[in-house]
Amino acid sequence: MILVTGGAGFIGSNFVLDCIATEKSPIVNLDKLTYAGNAGNLASLKGDARHIFVKGDICDRALLARLLHEHRPSAIVHFAAESHVDRSIHGPADFVQTNVIGTFSVLEEARSYWSSLAQPEKGRFRFLHVSTDEVYGSLGPDEPAFSETTPYAPNSPYAASKAASDHLVRAYHHTYGLPALTTNCSNNYGPLQFPEKLIPLIIINAVQRKSLPVYGDGLNVRDWLYVGDHCAAVRLVLHRGRAGENYNIGGGAEKTNLEVVNAICTILDEIRPNALITHHSSLITHIKDRPGHDRRYAMNAKKMADELGWKPGERFETGLRKTVQWYLDHLDWVENVTSGAYRKWLDINYGHR
């Protein structure tokens, strides 16, 4: 039994579906179902006794204690987080509450539960914290990729809140002996991603012949990781990673934002041509850059390869094509998640730019 927090969000739901399909692992899934958490992501598990969904807040320590006592998990995989930089700029308080206070709450209840276990269960227990490359700050064009020893230098409220949570996890291992691990991943993409993020936003806007907003000159670089590869890596770290260690998980696919947007446009020109526009790229609109926009991220995943034998299985080109096709095939899902609140958010974040 695994307790997963945030298992109705983008990466969390992919992880839950992947675990149940590949390992048959029973899962207790705790999610608050905020705007980015969608129970519909887990519709295929309806009636499956291996999946127990609980709607709740990770800051609710009484609920956490009850779930741990009742289900006796052998691991906690902690995905639950506020995760969008732009939202953190407009409203940092939610990020501190969820990412810092929430992680503290999960750690405290995990420590209490783990301390109560007898051997061999105590020795088998693991706490895996899922984090981001953004804690490392920004790279220059010729600087080496982030490694696990790169000093933290977060530049946004989101990144700072995740850095704080990473430090708490490290402290709980070194102070209390909690068998904790941390993974730091690069930009994920793939099915079920809430359409505030770059790739689904561009796909959906292009299909609707709306402008394709690109911050600044569009030359900010990100390392792109297909969500299925990320989930496989997390499972590997959970089973074979060394307690107390950090593991960087990267896709090995550095692309500028403009390259990504143009690649999506090229795919759509091929598989979803539109008679009203010659090329989808004609919809690209450069808008005012966001404050403190990090220029480049890149991940060195050598430790994952050397210690655990992991490398990404999906090339960016094939993963992006799969992703575009998934959104085209699931426009009903898009319609369900892009509510009035979502449209209001787009106006707040992009309207004044």
> Whole-number radius of gyration?
20 Å
Q: What is the CATH fold-level name of the domain at 2-190 and 227-252 and 294-314?
A: Rossmann fold
Largest sheet: 7 strands, parallel
CATH level-four homologous superfamily name of the domain at 2-190 and 227-252 and 294-314 = NAD(P)-binding Rossmann-like Domain
Proportion of residues in β-strands: 15-25%
Question: What's the total count of β strands?
Answer: 12
CATH class of the domain at 2-190 and 227-252 and 294-314, anyone?
Alpha Beta
Distance between the termini: 47 Å
Helix content: 40-55%
Structural class: alpha/beta
* Overall form: globular
What's the pLDDT, averaged over the residues? 94
Going across the biggest sheet, name each strand in turn.
Answer: 3-2-1-4-5-6-10
State the CATH architecture of the domain at 2-190 and 227-252 and 294-314. Answer: 3-Layer(aba) Sandwich
Taken in chain order, the helices and strands follow as EHEEHEHHHEHEEHEEHEEHEHHHH
The helix count comes to 13
Low-confidence parts = none
